[in-house]
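<goal> How does this chain fold?
<body> The protein record starts here
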Amino acid sequence: MKIGQVAREAGVSVDTVRFYERRGVLPPAGRRPSGYREFAGSAPGRIRAAKALQDLGFTLDEIVDALRAHDEGGATCAGERWRLEAVVTRLDTRIAELQRVRREAARAVEDCEAGRCRLLTIDDRETGRTPAIDDRQAGRTPAVTDRETGRTPAVAD
């Protein structure tokens, strides 16, 4: 099977097929007398399986290891479950970290809405000015980020 056909059937680019071959997702392709790669008929399915594992959160190295275990025979669901458990643990850790960061960002928004914008409380070492504090003392509303544009309007002095 030529590389273009493998790519079409797997729903990936030719470069992705080459990359997967280099990384060991696919066994090395044979060569035709013309020099073209000749892949096994199982290559598209193997690529789709690798993509499905990536979607679950497997790294490419983990995918290569899992496929190698499969290729060597004897791999069972019970024996390979640890791979999925490792992914779930990694995802749980990442979710917990994202939840922590989200809580902190939400507190920053609340502070900003209360006139304590963290983006503007960095001391200017040369002038000694702390923009958010000095703005409040001058009766100006500290700048807040426009949620639609993502820009922070300038505060007039």
In short: The chain has a mean pLDDT of 84. The chain is about 55% helix and 5% strand. The radius of gyration is 27 Å.
